[in-house]
Design goal:
The structure holds two protein chains of two kinds. By secondary structure, chain A is of the alpha/beta class. Helix content of chain A is 33%, strand content 30%. In chain A, the strands form three sheets. In chain A, strands 7-8-9-4-10-11 form a six-stranded mixed sheet, sandwiched between helices. In chain A, strands 1, 2, 3, 5 and 6 form a five-stranded antiparallel sheet that branches. Chain A has a four-stranded antiparallel sheet with strand order 13-14-12-15, covered by helices on one side. The longest helix of chain A has 16 residues. The chains are: A alpha/beta, B mainly alpha.
Chain lengths: 303, 209
């Protein structure tokens, strides 16, 4: 494991009784930039995040966050000084006011930025005297973000940050995340909102049934991933498409659909050699990739 | 310091209601002493020992102390704020220790409440408050610490507040039935410390999903 990664896990696993919530996940999140963590509900995203944050103990495997081992209490404490976390329900202390919550949180961080705190307080229009329990979900999200950002964390982890927010709040949230990443903070956020991830992430990791099924840069995906639809006069020669770069081949009558992560040109040439009557090559988006991965559960190699 | 403030915010309503109720009932007993059964036949010191520091008011104190002991990370988990608390750069042991410290201080203040009421009200009923009240309050505090630590520990074991409350009351009822006397005072500090340390150990080793 190396310090080049903000998050680096080695066969991280969590088992509840006979149920494997997370299975041997090797997660690598580079420092700086935005990494989206996609998966269906119950895929194991929150469990993985909570293991990284020390809230849940892994059944097996190891991990480091900002170079600190997640299974070492002293290192973990140091890690929490440098990592901010915004939980799915963004719940803080309902009985405190916004100002009390800020004062409380500020007391734990020596590098708290009062100027940033004031700017975000104004920008988010948070009422300092209002109790947290009286805040809307959007306001609670903004408060949680303020508490996370005002200390300038090296890594910001968010679990379903847009859950329950209206479109305007989602837009503001995404803009905040992009601006925070531009300031040098690494962002790792889980979501099942593909459009959001595709908009702001540099890289995406896809978890399905506890397994990491894809870890790919979105730029690479846009450049290299292709859906190739090939028509034949007769029975499609499936065996001809077992070539490097082919992720998945699906036949439907005299037509086959190939999902390629590389070598699209070579696959097209292969199709022509196999007497294809029509070949159509289109780039695939994150939604197609996600559906392919979660429907087929195949492991993707890091490009 | 701010962890103590958090613990105070979480328990202040329970504490203030308990303190007000104890003060109210102690005050009523002192002012309406002639109306309290058998009290008119007793010397003032005996009345204080048997009617204020024993019986119904003592039972009330026990229940209030159990209620003060409830709470903690499992209850925070149920309210949704545990993730925020656990992401702070603070060990779980420190979280537990601070909460226990604040709770024990509040319990000590509750134990002093009858003495305070007696000091204030005794002259109004033409009596002198005997120094005995300090010793009786110290006994309350010692036993209160043991009761608090039981509720505190059970709150680290049972998720819902009602389960911890029911288990604490059942345990205390069983103790009262079987042993029929309070725990010896020299035993209460190590007992309390052992139970709080066990709570911290449980918190350090459990998952908060």
């Amino acid at each position: 494991m190396s310090d080049v990664w903000a998050i680096d896990t080695d066969r991280l696993s969590k088992r509840y009784g006979t149920f494997d919530a997370v299975r041997a996940v090797d997660l690598k999140v580079a420092r700086r930039g935005i990494t989206g963590f996609l998966g269906r509900n119950g895929a194991g995203k929150s469990t993985t995040i909570k293991m990284l944050l020390g809230m849940i103990r892994p059944t097996s495997g190891a991990g480091r966050v900002i170079g600190r081992r997640i299974d070492d209490r002293a290192e973990h404490l140091e890690m929490r000084r440098r990592v901010a976390y915004v939980a799915e329900d963004k719940q803080t202390y309902a009985y405190m006011t916004v100002a009390q919550m800020i004062r409380f949180t500020r007391s734990f961080y020596a590098d708290w930025r009062p100027d940033l705190e004031r700017r975000l307080l104004d920008e988010y229009a948070l009422p300092p005297t209002r109790r947290v329990k009286a805040l809307s979900k959007g306001m609670r999200t903004k408060l949680a973000l303020l508490l996370a950002l005002a200390r300038r964390p090296e890594l910001l982890i968010l679990d379903e940050p847009s859950e329950g927010l209206d479109p305007v709040s989602i837009e503001e949230l995404l803009q905040t995340l992009v601006a925070t990443a531009a300031d040098g903070t690494t962002i790792f956020f889980s979501s099942h909102q593909i459009v959001e991830v595709e908009r702001i992430a540099d890289r995406v990791c896809i978890l399905d049934q506890g397994r990491l099924v894809a870890d790919v840069s979105l730029d690479y995906m846009r450049q290299e991933y292709r859906r190739i639809t090939i028509g034949f006069a007769g029975e499609p020669p499936m065996a001809a498409f077992r070539v490097p770069g082919v992720e998945h081949v699906r036949a439907s009558g005299r037509q086959i659909d190939v999902i390629a992560s590389a070598n699209a040109q070579a696959i097209v040439e292969e199709a022509r050699r196999a007497a294809a009557v029509s070949v159509e090559v289109v780039p695939i988006g994150l939604r197609d990739l996600f559906l392919e991965k979660v429907q087929h559960g195949e492991r993707d190699e890091r490009p | 310091m701010m962890l103590a403030y958090k613990a105070w915010c979480e328990t202040r309503v329970r504490f203030l209601v308990s303190a007000a109720a104890l003060a109210w009932f102690c005050g009523l007993f002192v002012i309406f002493r002639p109306g309290v059964r058998d009290a008119s036949k007793m010397a003032y010191a005996e009345f204080i020992d048997e009617k204020i520091y024993d019986g119904g008011i003592r039972l009330m104190f026990t229940v209030f102390v159990v209620v003060l002991g409830l709470g903690g990370l499992l209850q925070e988990q149920a309210r949704g704020s545990a993730a925020f608390t656990l992401s702070l750069p603070v060990t779980r042991t420190r979280l537990i220790a601070v909460r226990a410290g604040v709770g024990l201080a509040e319990m000590g203040a509750l134990a002093l409440m009858p003495a305070l009421v007696l000091v204030v009200l005794s002259p109004m009923v033409h009596e002198r408050c005997p120094p005995l009240v300090l010793m009786l309050s110290a006994h309350w505090a010692a036993n209160g610490a043991a009761i608090f630590s039981i509720a505190f520990l059970l709150s680290s074991v049972f998720g819902g507040p009602y389960a911890a409350l029911a288990a604490s009351m059942a345990l205390l009822f069983a103790y009262a039935l079987l042993v029929r006397q309070p725990m010896p005072i020299p035993l209460t500090p190590p007992f309390t410390m052992a139970l709080v340390a066990t709570s911290a150990w449980i918190a350090e080793h459990r998952d908060f999903s």
